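Notes to self, N-acetyltransferase:
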Amino acid sequence: MSKLRFHLLEPLRFPLINRFYKSYYPAGKAKKNEIIWVGEDNSSIICCVRFKQFDHYQLLTGMLVHPERRGAGIARLLLTACNQQLNVTPCYCFAFRQLEQLYHDANFAVIPENELPEVLASLLQRYRQSGKDLIAMRHQH
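result:
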């Protein structure tokens, strides 16, 4: 396996992220005001994660690993690489229940829904109503 390189996405390469999402996670769509981290192998995007910014906190969202590369620990490496971003402001995520351990290993802890900022609590409720089995988590410094 070639060495993966993790870094912030350069603004000029933004269209590549939405192409990546369209190919493997059509519900995901990056926005230009999000902070986006990518992992690349031989200049091809292998994984990405976005940080949606709010006034006093952020939401980790849209983590995606190329389907052919899943199960190799790449998501863990990506979370480790963007650790500095996780600590900029309080960071929340809505994890699929089966991925709880992955996020736990990256210092996220399950929190009660009533500890979420109001905007995120509403968003989580909407996602759950659409049938997604998600848990609220917050990064612990």
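- The chain has one domain: 5-139.
- DSSP finds five helices and seven strands in the chain.
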